[in-house]
Amino acid sequence: EADVIITTPTVPYKALPVGKAYSITISNPSNFPDPSDVEYYEEPIIHATVITPVQYMGPIMELCKARRGDQTDMEYLEWDQVLIKYTLPLAEVVLDFYDGLKSASKGYASLDYTPAGYRQASVVKLNFMLNGAPVDALSCIVHRDHAEVTARRICERLKKALSRQQFEVAIQASVGVKIIARETMSAVRKNVLVKGGKTVGGGDVTRKKKLLEKQKEGKKKMKRVGNVELSQK
Questions:
Q1: Can you give the residue ranges of the Elongation factor EFG domain (predicted)?
Q2: What is the pLDDT of residues 53-84, one digit of tens each?
C-alpha cells in the first residue's frame, strides 16, 4: 500500500449534447460525457494582462504561446516596461502559469486577469490505471494537443511517488480505449536463498531452483490480485 497525494487543478467545462439547445457544465472529470453524445465542448477563458521589463518580453510571449494564448494587444510603457494582453484558457493558468511567468521574468513580471466566458475547444478525458485498474480520482480533462505530454508527465511522477511493491506495477494513461503513456515499476526483489544471514539449501541446486520457482509463482499471483492504493487528499 502506498500513500500518495495527487492534486489536479480543475476548471468547469461545458458541453452541448447532441440534439439539445442548451449546454451542460462539467465540473468533475467523472461527469465527462462521451464524445459521440456531444456536438462540441467549451473551455473557460480569461483576458490576461502582463506587465514586464522589455528584456523579458520574449520568454513571456513564448510561455503564453505554449499555453495556447492569443495575443490581443501590446503597449510600451515608461521605464522600459511593456504591457502585453492575451486571451488564455483558464485551465492553462491555474496549473502552474504563475510560476512559469516568474521564472521567465526573474520575478519582475506582474499578472492580472478577468474571466472572459467560454470558447469551443478540443478537449478529452485523460484516464489513469494501475495494473489495469482505473483510478478515477486521477482523471482529468485536458486539451487534445497536450494529452500525450500531460499523460507522460503524470505517469512519471506517479512512478517516482509510489512505493515499490513485491510485484510489477504498470502505470498507464489512456484517452478512450487508446493507451497513450505507460511507466512500469519493477518489483522489489527479495533474496529467498538467504535466511538469517545464511544461504538456504547449501550446495543443493535442486532446492534452490524450487525456492526461486516458488518465488516466481508467488510474484505472478501477487500481480494478479495485488492492489496499489492511493490516498487522495
A1: 42-124
A2: 999 999 999 999 999 999 999 999 988 999 99
Phi/psi at 219 (nearest 5 deg)?
-65, -35
At residue 215, what is the residue type?
Answer: Q
Q: What is d(CA 146, CA 186) in angstroms, rounded to the nearest whole number?
A: 28
Domain made up of 123-185: CATH architecture: 2-Layer Sandwich (3.30)
Is the CATH number 3.30.70.240 carried by domain 13-121?
A: yes
Closest CA to 31 of 39, 21, 41, 22: 41
User: Is this prediction's pTM over 0.85?
Assistant: no
Query: What residue ranges do the domains of the chain occupy?
Result: 13-121, 123-185
Considering Cα of 96, then 98, then 101, then 102, what sign does the dihedral take? negative
